[in-house]
Design a protein that fits this description.
This is Catechol 2,3-dioxygenase. It comes from Sulfitobacter litoralis. The protein has 194 residues and is of the alpha/beta class. The longest helix has 15 residues. The N and C termini lie far apart (60 Å).
Length: 194
């Protein structure tokens, strides 16, 4: 038996309301360019809109002119999607609450998750959207996932409840030491002000 190895998210497809509400939300609020439009090839009563979230992957939306926006929370039963998170940079993250407020969109306020900050709000159909901003930058040639893996190991070894900034900072030091060579034989912390 062998694995089927995935190499990334290809696209995520969500059920939308009507075409214009979907375009207004995904492009008009979240800024994702509307890049492709065709019928849903499995249901002739639906459209299939494609949006670019900025990382070269796709968010696609099935639309139907008979589906109106409803503002109830979508189901969170086992097997249901709880939410989708999109990355924003720090400068944008600091503007999110004001930009939602000017549209009258309620939100969770800023949630500090240790390794990221999050703001949650619902789309026009009640689906939970998260806008997230990492609290750290991975070393060059590394990834957020690599730093989080090392931070997790440190957190567990130290008996801490959840990832905090210290775990991330120490993980970054470890990754740099492991991946970047030096002429020094002793790369331990020093105090040049002694």
């Amino acid at each position: 038996m062998q694995k089927i190895q995935v190499i990334g998210v290809h696209h995520i497809t969500l059920m939308g309301a009507d075409r214009q509400t979907s375009i207004d939300f995904w492009e008009g609020l979240l800024g994702m360019p509307f890049i492709f439009d065709q019928p849903n090839l499995d249901d002739p009563d639906e459209g299939h809109l494609y949006f670019d979230p900025g990382d070269g992957r796709l968010i696609t939306i099935f639309t139907n002119e008979n589906r109106n926006p409803v503002h109830n929370r979508t189901p969170t039963d086992a097997g249901c999607v709880h939410h989708v998170a999109f990355e924003v940079d720090r400068a944008m993250f600091d503007q999110v609450q004001d930009r939602l407020k000017e549209r009258g969109i309620g939100n969770s306020g800023v949630k500090d998750r240790g390794f990221m900050h999050s703001i949650y709000f619902k789309d026009p159909l009640g689906f939970l959207i998260e806008l997230a901003c990492y609290t750290f930058i991975p070393p060059r040639g590394s990834s957020h996932a690599e730093v989080m893996l090392e931070a997790h190991k440190l957190r567990v070894a130290r008996g801490d409840h959840h990832i905090e900034r210290q775990h991330l900072a120490d993980a970054t030091v470890m990754i740099v030491k492991r991946s970047q060579r030096s002429l020094s034989e002793d790369r331990s912390a020093k105090n040049p002000y002694r």
